[in-house]
Amino acid sequence: MTRASKTGNAQHADSPAGRGMNPCAWLQSGSAFKVGATSGRDSTSPAELAPTLGRHISPSHCEGIHWAFIEQMLRVVESGRGLRIIGFCCLAWCAIAAGAANSFGPARVRLQNGRQLDCEILARSNDVVFIQRVFGAGVAREQYPVAQIESILFPRPAFLSVVATQALPDTAALRACIKTAEQAYAATRAFADVKGTWAYHVGFEYARLLEQARRFSSARRIYDRVNRAGGDAELRRSAALRSALCAYYSATPSNALQGLLAITAVVTNDGERAAVAYYTGMCYAQLGQPVASLFALLRNVVLYSLEPDWEPRSLVAALPNYAALERGDEFRTTCATLVRRFPATPYAAVASNMLVRLAAGTNVHACASLSLYPVELRK
Length: 379
Prior knowledge:
- By secondary structure, this protein is α+β, with helices and mostly antiparallel strands.
- It contains 18 helices and 5 strands.
- The chain has a 5-stranded antiparallel beta sheet with strand order 4-3-2-1-5.
- Strand 2 and strand 3 form a beta hairpin.
């Protein structure tokens, strides 16, 4: 076997350090098993063992693996003790290292046979969960196949309590909260397939923060993930609604419109109906369909006027549609309504400006551009 050097800290030329690879990627690639594979000292071939280890090791479980450990395992192979030893030693080390650095904390594990274990979750692979239990002064580390686990009940993540009560006074606070949410989501998502996880609740709040930061594409991806696979029916419904609203800012108007029309059937209160009506009307306006846009927007005037802000926002958004249809009387009446009913607001200010333009002789059709109004458009 070729060495990179002959010092006490020598590295194998095919080792991760010798090749400049991440240790996790090196283990998963099967290179660890190719080293010494021609020794003929073990009946387990690399082709047989590598897929087995690959099922158990993922990047999140290998963060604590060190070069020194891998070099030691290579020397085990070189001494003739076999590929099977290195494979399962690597797997065990992954569990211990990941547990030491990224413990998932206390939990109550309920097995399919009814047995209940109060423990600390150290790590998990695709099909095995590693736990630690304390017995007086003693500590036991155990592993259980995911197939034998009925549920894992974690305490409510602290992040959910914080995000529900913490005010975010500025952009820096929002960024800090997003970082905390990202970490909490990554940790809980490792157990998203096990009943009892908080992954989807954390994911939903993480997406809400991203939406607040106007990172609509990222928020939409997580909402869609929650809607497809997670949580209770109400959480999935809320995620589907938020995804459809985010699509207005992150998808084409035609695609966003399809999502909004589809979500209409599952909204459950007037606030949600008003939001869907507004963004539906805005999509129609951007698609050059002023009549359909007015039909959607004016629902917020007739049906949902008690919902804060949606009525004046919808009236302002209706103005370019009236202008496109050259309905001068309706245009002026709407402007006058905004000035009278919503004084000292941005909505009244834009209406006053439009009335001044018309009084100066501007043709109403020249007021049809959406860019003249304080409406949010897809960037």
